[in-house]
Amino acid sequence: MILKKSERASLIAVPSVIEWKGLLPRVPLNNSFLRPKSLAPELDAACLGVGMAQFAGNLSRLIFSKNYSQVFLLGVCGAYPGSLLSLEDIVRVDTEFVGDEGYLGSGNSFIPFNAKPFPYSASPYCRAPRVIQNFPGVKGISVNMLSTDPEFLRFRARFSGAKVESMEGAVAFSICRASKISIYEIRAVSNIVGERDKSKWKLQEALFALRKKVLDPLIGSYR
Asked: What is the CATH number of the domain that holds 69?
């Protein structure tokens, strides 16, 4: 039997425990990441794990076991130098590219398997809740391997045209579009890509901005 999806049944997908605690400080996980928490009628939230493999498996399990019609991926990201983005900025990621599918040769020479950088795209934002429509749209790149090498990072940004980097967006877009589920990705900039000194990051500030400007109004729209 095929269950009819509710037009408003939605899932907020959060990658990491740190992001969950920053976005939903009053909602405990109870050591059960895959048991969605109800935030409002027809609106759940789940912490699905960092990185493409873990996030993809857990997201697939949830959307095939529950009747969600759309997914909101909320979290932080890094901004590439030269992107003109500042820490704590909030962006709408319209397209995604897997940035480390390819061949890495000597001297960090990299040949991507996919010559067309952006095969994954979000659902049309004209159908999304109004609260997330007005943020600036950017290209994103999803990676399994972070890097601090300036030359390699310049190549990634130049080849892809991406302004932000994260670790889950491309698989979320791919899975949801294949499953005919709407998918929207909203990120707050917590750091500059390649900067590993976390004292220079604005992680909690970025999560606070995302909670106040996106998550709280989104929850309110379902009540």
From this structure: 3.40.50.1580
